[in-house]
Amino acid sequence: MPRALISVSDKRGIVVFAQGLAQLGWEIISTGGTAAALRAAGVAVTTVDQVTGFPELLDGRLKTLHPAVHGALLARRDRPEHMTAVAEHGIVPIDLVAVNLYPFQMTIARPGTLFEDAVENIDIGGPSMLRSAAKNHLFVLPVVDPTDYPKVLDLLRQGPIGEEVRREFAAKVFAHTADYDAAIAAYLTAKEAGLPRRLGIAMERVQTLRYGENPSQRAALYVTEEPRGMRDLTQRHGKELSFNNLLDVDAAMWVVACWPNRPACSVIKHTTPCGVAVASSAVEAFRKARATDPVSAYGSVVAFNTVVDRATCSWR
């Protein structure tokens, strides 16, 4: 029976993912709150302390740093000496790791966060498991992104996962942990005149653009792990966007965000507002914003801070 170790802070989609693995005949190993959430959903779970024979210690700081976990992740299946060693010590290989990390970036982004709270959100076991799995990705699939869960289930249903795909998942892990460590280093580094001594930025390409600032330039959208931004947007239809389109989208989003409790609409062209309005409904806000300068509004980006209903879509 293949085994998956699941331990996540961000629990989006994790129940459905674990249920899918269980239906495919996988044993689920889990920790703490993740195990409780899976059990509550009816998923059979083996706890990590059952695997290690050692209880969680130090208020949960020590859970998975154990040979029964990392030996199970690092053993190469194609080396008889590795398999003999783990068998001699009663270690059963683990074939998939689904882990995401303590929310350090989100914690320090909150106003008034205490230094102690920030430090407690520095994950140790999570990056260690991910790195072990990613190093041995030919035999252990490392999954760090919750949006990849449906893709992983589809791949597993199709049969053995190829080396190229496994390498992509491994690369994603190392990029993620590099970004995570860079955020911690930046937080702990003393600031001089309000500026850090070192600055490291890790970004993920999420979309190829039609062209850059000029039609002759290639471009793509890269995003960080920071919450609430361009990475959270989904293009539903239409042709590929350009660099200038995204500049306008970003500006339009920030404009309407100024009114969280009232319907607002912004019309942006070349990062310049053609019209901004607040009203009692989305359609009325759009009508007012567009009426400000209907000529310049041609080919613009329109943003709302509320649901775009049928009345707004069909307005003439």
Give me the secondary-structure topology.
Layout: E1 3-7, H1 14-23, E2 27-30, H2 32-40, E3 46-47, H3 48-52, H4 67-74, H5 80-88, E4 96-99, H6 104-109, H7 115-120, H8 125-135, E5 141-143, H9 149-158, H10 163-188, E6 191-192, E7 195-196, E8 204-208, E9 220-223, H11 243-256, E10 264-269, E11 272-278, H12 282-292, E12 301-304, H13 310-313
Provide a quick synopsis of the model.
This protein has 13 helices and 12 strands. It has helices at 14-23, 32-40, 48-52, 67-74, 80-88, 104-109, 115-120, 125-135, 149-158, 163-188, 243-256, 282-292, 310-313, and strands spanning 3-7, 27-30, 46-47, 96-99, 141-143, 191-192, 195-196, 204-208, 220-223, 264-269, 272-278, 301-304.
Mean pLDDT: 84
- What composes the largest sheet? 5 strands, parallel
Report low-confidence residues grouped into runs of 5 or more: none
* Strand line-up of the largest beta sheet: 3-2-1-4-5
Topology pattern, helix = H, strand = E: EHEHEHHHEHHHEHHEEEEHEEHEH
Q: What's the shape?
A: elongated
Radius of gyration: 24 Å
Total DSSP E strands:
12
> What portion of residues is helical?
40-55%
Q: What portion of the residues fall into strands of 2 or more residues?
A: 15-25%
Keywords:
316 residues; alpha/beta; three-stranded antiparallel beta sheet; 13 helices; 12 strands; 41% helix; elongated
